[in-house]
Here is the input.
Amino acid sequence: MIKTIIFDLGGVLIDVDMPYCLNNIKALGVDVDALTKSSATAPASTVCEGITISGALHDYQIGKIPTEQFLAMLQELSTPGTTRQQVLYAWNSCLQTLPKYKLDFVKQLRSMGYTTYLLSNTNDAHWQYILETAFPEPAENYFDKTFLSQEMGMAKPDTEIYAEVLRQIGTSADECLFIDDSSTNCKAAESLGIHTYNAPVHTDYREEVMNILNRKNSQ
Here is the structure.
């Protein structure tokens, strides 16, 4: 029986456009390909369906690099004269709207007795921007706990991050439904026995999630 629902953030709750962000960074003169390139041996994390990052971007996602150092690095790689504010704007430009109906849905699930959590590959600059501009209420009004890659020192699709979430929640994998826009992240969660829903971006998935919950909880 599913009792716990774990939401991804970017692509599931808040709309994101990572290609737009990367193009904005590229316009500053930064070699984006070098920043996002992954290798078979380097640790990597997903930022959205089809985009995987390693190197400095991955390190920033898992909190190894502080925000000021990260922004300074991008500024140094940019065209001379580029300001910190221009770099920060370009970096945050992937973050778009967070539809109110999605947050209302999270509250609805909580009112139905489900515990809700957030599990996101994110970084300090993005998270602070989201807290300031996207959530109309404190995050704790929507989630029992937020699990952020920058705070956990690990990122999806590493199975260790899911195992740690389960440990901290104190529940079994088969009692959880994980909603993510990345098929890679969903497959990693499924390998531990977590139920998943690979949510298409820019869609209203509420009916499908309710169908899954009704189906799984009636078995």
Q: What stands out?
A: The longest helix spans residues 100-111. Residues 2 and 214 are 9 Å apart (CA to CA). The radius of gyration is 17 Å. Strands lie at 4-7, 45-48, 51-53, 115-120, 145-148, 176-180, 195-198.
